[in-house]
């Protein structure tokens, strides 16, 4: 006689010879079967939903795709121009032993400094001033058109009992605000990056105006070179002024020493 116990979760079976066989139920098999059935049900539900609303889904896809394509086509083309600038590392004529062994690190610091100078806001301001970009068509500062809100407030302000304050018109930006906005726009569209393992720095500018896209990188390179020359001239002028002052002082000391020597000779004579 075979006896089964606990068929759901496992148990044992008595064999005719009196021995027992342990039976263990595989729970993963039941879970896998249930999961497969749920997946089939979910797929059928999804497919039924899609077939029910397929024309709405297709229509929305076409409408969104068409609007996206029209928006993309209506955008003005963006032109990009690039200028390569060669930065030469000037080694000092007299250097220390530490500088001899650390020449590579000094060069890296020098090139990183030049990159930061090219990204400096002061150069961008000089660029905007030199090209007079505030008056350029790319930075049109026409006042915004009066919308529905403006006319609605104008109408309500004529009704005394509503006591609605008249709509305040937006004040035109000042010259300083225009200049600041143009500088920020130029810096946002300007890119300065170094070429790997070289002394070349690429200056890139994006604009909807092709002439402006080509003009800005070249002018920025010119402004950088001019600023570098001005800094060197200022240092030379400062050094010359200091040397002249020092030389005059030495001459005065020499003159006083000669006079003292002359007085000493006369006193001994």
TrEMBL record:
Write down the membrane topology: Multi-pass membrane protein
Coiled-coil ranges (or none): 240-267
Q: Where is the Polysaccharide chain length determinant N-terminal domain?
A: 39-131
Picking any one GO molecular function of the record gives:
protein tyrosine kinase activity
So where does this one cross the membrane? 53-73
Q: Which InterPro entries match?
A: Bact_polysacc_biosynth/exp (IPR050445), LPS_length_determ_N (IPR003856)
In Swiss-Prot or TrEMBL terms, this protein is called Exopolysaccharide biosynthesis protein
From which source organism is this entry?
A: Candidatus Thiomargarita nelsonii
Taxonomy of the source species: Bacteria, Pseudomonadati, Pseudomonadota, Gammaproteobacteria, Thiotrichales
